[in-house]
Amino acid sequence: MSQLEKIYGLHAVEALLRHHPKRVKQVWLAEGRGDPRAQVLLELAAQARVSVGQCERREMDAWVEGVHQGVVAEVSPSQVWGEAMLEELLDRADGPPLLLVLDGVTDPHNLGACLRTADAAGALAVIVPKDKSATLNATVRKVACGAAEVIPLVAVTNLARTLEKLQQKGLWIVGTAGEAEQPLYDQDLSGPIVLVMGAEGKGMRRLTREHCDYLVRLPMAGSVSSLNVSVATGVCLFEALRQRKSGRLS
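Structure tokens predicted for 23S rRNA (guanosine-2'-O-)-methyltransferase RlmB:
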């Protein structure tokens, strides 16, 4: 049991049972939880032949840090993909690929929110450096609401080298920076794009910035100078999705 991870929350556990049922070893429901959402979990667990147990909520409170919603699953360790996964994803891409790079985002809440947004916007994968970056854990999965089980998280040893390889494959690297002259909405994002978001507070590292083909900024109309990285990521990704749906800038 010491090698298993505890994943919690309705969305995260349901996504695991739907997409990776073999990873789920045990599901726990809080006593008295018999609502329709719990029934869905019971049906999925039965289909996957996963045992379901009951325990008191206060016992679950001691297991995990966060709002577990009366649902906890014990699963095999998280899967973080290596760089070779990118080759396979690009080969399978249906239309111009869209990749998201998070250059040193360390807050698991931000990583979870970015995974959720990236999946919703149709990104192929989220790329992070192996060092000084948040990785998959129970908090990330809970915030991602199931997206962590669907969209690949790719950890690379050398981010600058990875960006170079993606450029060689015909992708354009678009980085975000507050001092950039080009507004986001004037940038063509309808083609094969790698969107690079910087770390909380610090932004992109110098070497990452140097590998960008374009730098864009989010126009700010209020008194604040910047947005939370997960909010900014959502704005950028959905502008890319809008352009891809309409087929043009407007």
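The domain at 83-247 is CATH 3.40.1280.10 (Alpha/beta knot).
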